[in-house]
């Protein structure tokens, strides 16, 4: 019986000695990870340092990154402590503008989070694409020459039965399309210069235009066919819509804030060249 009692007492003692380790507080942003001359570096500082790293460095394994950030923080703090003359006016303004930029970014992030929702993205998609009127795409070919007379000559040959594609190969200065018989593929509104687009829109499939002048020269245009442009699905334009929404909610929010704020600009009349005068810090 004595042996059993000793066993249980030993187990209880072992558990008791283990309790302090189990009862230790979980790490927080205030947990000290290093000190330099008694000044603490905290876990929170390391987390922020990691967040500031370019994306490629954030992929470094945690154990290597943790050690590397501690060493970087130690070196930076040691260097900071080595500056004995204190903060200059320039130093204070650097820190002030950095802090202002950070807080402005934080404010905008909350605005974007609130304004760029899935519902807002879908609404923007419906407005721009799903509910938008159908648009027409065109398949056309052209022959580009340097004079109206040459264009008229080629048009007369086409009207007389000459093959458009062969004339394009032999005469068009647009060598990129000439090798394909002048074929330009499919294009939509706004993709061609206006005189060219206007001429294409006026044609019916199979028709050939008269000479059309643009900044590139003189064109003879053949419209092959038309089709209704396919509308992209949401995922194909999600990034485009998201970026447009971000710009809008940010612009609207900044406009509202500045309109409601009392803004005075007594320095607007200063010489803009003063921006380059760093000697002002020495005066």
From TrEMBL:
Pfam family, one: Rotamase_3
InterPro entries: PPIase_dom_sf, PPIase_PpiC, PPIase_PpiC_CS, PrsA_foldase, Trigger_fact/SurA_dom_sf
Entry coiled-coil feature ranges: none
UniProt signal peptide: 1-23
Enzyme type, top EC level: isomerase
E.C. numbers: 5.2.1.8
Keywords, in A-Z order: Isomerase, Rotamase, Signal
Keyword Repeat included in the entry's annotation: no
An annotated Gene Ontology molecular function: peptidyl-prolyl cis-trans isomerase activity
All residue ranges annotated as the PpiC domain in the record: 135-225
Catalytic activity: [protein]-peptidylproline (omega=180) = [protein]-peptidylproline (omega=0)
Recorded family membership: Belongs to the PpiC/parvulin rotamase family.
Protein name: Parvulin-like PPIase
Species of the source: Paragemmobacter straminiformis
């Amino acid at each position: 019986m004595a042996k059993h009692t000793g066993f249980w007492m030993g187990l209880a003692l072992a558990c008791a000695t283990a309790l302090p380790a189990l009862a230790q507080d979980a790490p927080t942003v205030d947990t000290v990870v290093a000190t330099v001359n008694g000044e603490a570096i905290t876990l929170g500082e390391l987390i922020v340092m990691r967040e500031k790293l370019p994306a490629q460095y954030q992929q470094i394994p945690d154990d290597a990154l943790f050690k590397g950030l501690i060493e970087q923080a130690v070196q930076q703090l040691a260097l900071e402590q080595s500056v004995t003359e204190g903060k200059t006016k320039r130093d204070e303004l650097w820190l002030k503008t950095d802090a202002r930029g950070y807080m402005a970014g934080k404010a905008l992030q909350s605005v974007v989070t609130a304004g760029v929702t899935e519902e807002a993205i879908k609404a923007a998609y419906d407005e721009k694409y799903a509910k938008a009127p159908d648009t027409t795409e065109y398949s056309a070919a052209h022959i580009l020459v340097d004079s109206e007379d040459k264009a008229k000559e080629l048009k007369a040959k086409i009207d007389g039965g000459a093959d458009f594609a062969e004339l394009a190969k032999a005469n068009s200065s647009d060598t990129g399309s000439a090798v394909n018989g002048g074929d330009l593929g499919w294009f939509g509104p706004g993709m061609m210069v206006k005189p060219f687009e206007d001429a294409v829109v006026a044609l019916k499939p199979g028709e050939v235009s008269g000479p059309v002048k643009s900044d590139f020269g003189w064109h003879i245009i053949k419209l092959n066919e038309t089709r209704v442009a396919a509308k992209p699905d949401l995922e194909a334009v999600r990034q485009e819509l998201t970026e447009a929404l971000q710009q809008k909610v940010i612009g609207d929010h900044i406009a509202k804030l500045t309109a409601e704020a009392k803004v005075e600009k007594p320095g607007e009349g200063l010489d803009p060249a003063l921006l380059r005068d760093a000697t002002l810090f020495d005066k």
